[in-house]
Amino acid sequence: MSMDIYQHFREEEKSFIDQVLSWKEEVEQSYIPKLTDFLDPREQHIFQSIVGQHSDFKLHFFGGGEQTERKRGILAPYYENLTEDDFHIGLLEASYPNKFVQITHRDVLGSLMSLGIKRKKLGDIIIHNDRIQILCDQEISTFLRFHLTGIRKAKVEFCEKELRDFRPSQEEWIIISGTVSSLRLDAVISEIYQVSRQKAIDWIKKGAVKVNFRIVENPAFQVEEGDLFSIRKKGRSKFQAIHGKTKKGKWKMTAAKLK
User: Fold this and answer.
1) 50-73: buried (b, 16+ CB within 10 Å) or exposed (e) per residue?
2) DSSP conformation letters of 52-76
3) Which one of 20, 50, 99, 234 is most buried, by most CB atoms within 10 A?
């Protein structure tokens, strides 16, 4: 594998690329399928880009249910028959008194992190009415059931459920098709959120914009397919695809924004 693979990706993605290359080598040498931790959409895109076209392998992603954002990957020799059980994903569910306490995604994630759980062991976290569902690596589900007993001021008791009981997020995404003069962060944010370029620059410089869960303060940051954005008080969006250029040299793009 030549060094020029790195130039297609960002500097900070180098260690993840190395990880993917070592998984690929492992499967090539052992012929044993490799199961990854949960990957965000950008990591899935990188993984797919690096090994997706290889006829000796197949790469599958599964997150525990329909429309999950975070997924585990299995890289396997092409002849392996894989099932959903091979992904070792557990589903935990608890109810809480939503009349008395408001629990957000961030609250649940915060409680999990305070138990020393790494984000990569967790899939999507869905809160719907009075129910919290957590998709996770099966290996930690018993630990979580015993130790995750309170979130904010609410007592919670998680039990294990079948994956078929998973309820996808009720979030609605609006698809946005547009054109941008460049793939700079300020240009893309301006198009998705329908604000002036200057407004987008202000948000970015104030540290209000996260790309793939990291604050990015450089308006010239280059956006790529699979990037997730979150803007303080303006909600989340994702950059889905680039579809070549218009006659005037602008990039055609599609994105999705949370309603």
Assistant:
1) bbeeeeebbbbbbbbbeebbbbbb
2) TT-TTEEEEEE-SSTT-SSEEEEEE
3) 20
Apex 61 CA angle, 192 and 148, nearest 5 = 85
Task: Kindly give the confidence (pLDDT) of every residue in the chain, 259 residues in length, as a single tens digit, with 9 standing for 90 and above.
Answer: 456 788 888 888 999 999 999 999 999 999 999 999 999 988 998 999 998 777 889 999 999 998 899 999 999 999 999 999 999 999 999 999 888 888 988 899 999 999 999 999 999 999 988 999 999 999 999 999 999 999 988 899 999 999 999 998 877 889 999 999 999 999 999 999 999 999 999 999 999 999 988 899 999 999 998 899 999 999 899 999 999 999 999 999 999 998 8
State both tokens at 76.
């396997």
Please tell me what DSSP assigns to residue 31.
-
Contact 169, 105 (CB under 8 A): no
With CA atoms as reference, report the closest residue to 67 among 170, 173, 168, 212.
Answer: 168
- Sequence letter at residue 127: I
Give the span between the Cα atoms of 42 and 52, in whole angstroms.
Answer: 14
CA–CA separation, 160 vs 172, rounded Å? 27
Strand, helix or coil at 29? helix
- The C-alpha atoms of residue 119 and residue 236 are separated, in whole angstroms, by 19
For 71, the token pair is: 């997924």
